[in-house]
Model the fold of this input.
Amino acid sequence: SAVISQKPSRDICQRGTSLTIQCQVDSQVTMMFWYRQQPGQSLTLIATANQGSEATYESGFVIDKFPISRPNLTFSTLTVSNMSPEDSSIYLCSVAVSWAVSSEQYFGPGTRLTVT
Amino acid sequence: GQQLNQSPQSMFIQEGEDVSMNCTSSSIFNTWLWYKQDPGEGPVLLIALYKAGELTSNGRLTAQFGITRKDSFLNISASIPSDVGIYFCAGQWQGAQKLVFGQGTRLTINP
Done:
């Protein structure tokens, strides 16, 4: 498995501002993922972040709104830009840990964002 | 985006009862994963399934990978108060790392 931490754990932000969320893993991993979980909803993948390459965004998510950095194999950041109340969600990072014939994903504790 | 059809959406049971929930999809998955999420926490991986027909246990939890590769179920035996939470299934296509999640099953236990 992997131990994942996120900062901040929660924040209350004003509309129009931006927030950068950090994700730190205790081991080197190739693939990291960022998810959004809107209140009372399931998880939706925002983007996949591989070290040394541009993040790959899912339909409905764009780099200008959710820029991602992946400077090394243990760290990534997600920025929520020009926030509106609709961005109020839990943002989760996860990592894929691969074995010989399979892989598993482990999640961080999440960042609870409220936009006023 | 595409989601799995997970049911039931919520369950209200008595302590000690057995629980069963399932997920179905129109797509064939190579891997099925089951997670539990407590309030204010991230999802925690419970069981991972990699082969059609595979039946795997983790303590009081048992999960199966459907033979058609389009469904999976999770059973919890003799429920206890700490089983309360939201359970998510997730599917993964062959050759892909991204996960597709079900809508979740909210489990409430009456003492």
Summary: DSSP finds no helices and eleven strands in chain A.
